[in-house]
Amino acid sequence: MCILHQHKYLARPPGHVPGGYGHRPVTCSVITTNNTKLKPTQLTIHQRLQDPPTLVISTSPPVFNDPSLQSTWVHRAWIAAGCATVLVSLAKAIVGAAASHNLLEPMLTGYIGYILADLASGVYHWGIDNYGDESTPIFGSQIEAFQGHHRWPWIITRRQFANNVHALARAVTFFVLPIDLAYNDPVLHGFVGMCSGCIMFSQQFHAWAHSTKSKLPPLVVELQNVGLLVSRSQHAAHHRPPYNNNYCIVSGVWNQFLDQNRIFEALEMVIYFNLGVRPRSWCEPTSGWTEDVETQSQVTLQ
User: What is the phi/psi pair of residue 235, to 5°?
Assistant: First the structure.
């Protein structure tokens, strides 16, 4: 039985030529059924190795009041559409539950939706942090934005609300609107309304996790303190080396389970051995991962 203890050693094999073909020696320990450990052997794997895409990130952050951080009427329109579809779904859940005198099931599915929204935010965050680049179809702009966020995480606190959330609001609108029109089941809408609402506002929860408590509404601070929203202290671990943990940004309730059981590392190994693609987290952090701290002049511009 071959046991690969650390996948990061596979990321940079001796004599490896990025993107090329070659012989890649891997040292494995072999353990027999009577627990006798044999001498480590070397295997040669013939496989195409692909380096994770290198993103080209601007060398300077957006300036204060940069137009790219401002909300537009298009952004606000998508926020209105997303909120409308979520509110219709929640209203159908409440009205249907009241009519059937069954409040428990819609509340239970709503709670499940809230829990799964946190998991979904982590999986999505892990994916765009580690795979693809700015040229990736559909997700390219978000991949580039999240990589820039690693370098200048404080910028998210400068984005206006609609600017920060509109992309998710647009996705929620396209997904939830057909469900609103086709179904009246309060149990279904309890799940859909809560899950889609948490996903849509996850970027705002993310922004709050980068803000100091003195700048947040008291209710938000209390929700963070009781663990209903991801806190600043919990999310801060994601922005420290090795940059491969605490991906969930709704409540963060899944982070400990995912990190302790190395769920994302296992997924990375599956992708690597099937597609030969390495995640960015296997490489030594570059300047694109390392945070540029706000200067005093930037702080005083708030």
Answer: -70, -25
